[in-house]
Amino acid sequence: MKEKIGFIGLGNMGLPMAKNLIKAGYTLQVYNRTASKADELEKAAVTVCSSPEEAATDVQFVVTMLSEDAILEEAVSGEKGLLKSLKGGGVHISMSTISPETAAKLNALHQQNGSHYLAAPVFGRPEAAAAQKLWICTSGNSSVKEACKPILESMGQGVVDFGEEPGNANVVKITGNFMIMASMEMMAEAFTLGEKNGIDPKKMADFFGSTLFNAPIYQNYGKLIANKQYEPVGFKAKLGFKDARLAFALAQKSETPMPMVATIHNRLLTAIAKGKGERDWVEGFGSGVTDDAGL
User: Fold this and answer.
1) Angle (CA) 111 114 115, round 5°
2) FRET partner for 165 with CA separation of 20 to 30 A, picked from 91, 136, 219, 264?
């Protein structure tokens, strides 16, 4: 049995990631706001905790997989945050999609605490997390990255380094999610145009996914859009909207014109306004475009 690590956040992504850590031989001290989520983990390998502070007690590494910047900040520096107990030299592996500014802020808090912060956001839906097929981007101290490598490799198919600046990996994650959203908007528009002109969108998705756009994003999301398959919910539209906001803010701060960001932002805002914030973000694009087209 390998060492015990802390794990905070057992959502759609965090739960399969935690399962893979257990499969790799780690034992976990887990915290989740809904404690019953831990019931899906192997009981002998898990200690259920009542706070992030407890989850980070007497461990060298603690992983967080949380949905929002503010929620992550509270888990780190709140009244019962992990900084209350994470020992000197301990490492916080932050795998959430957050702004680079938040990453820099958390890194500074860890420096004051005598602990370390590693940005390690991931690419992949829950099924990819379950299959240990995530792509993980990292940024932070080189020696810390090396120490965390076995943990990260237990959750993904590849780990790619983007330097020592703590926010770098989050910039890459934000830009990557922007490209995914732009691709979904493009496919939804293209398939809807074909459908309105008598072409089967499923056949279009199969054709393009195996020829001109032979890549997982177009194959996987293309099939979901063409089939109008919006369940099970893998990634909520409200979280996609959060990522669109992050991309929009980053573009404004760096004075980078990105017209497509506005389209994506409005598409997901429309989904939320229609009460679909808890639905899959694929539906935000797929049904959003078909609704506009009267289909």
Assistant:
1) 80
2) 264
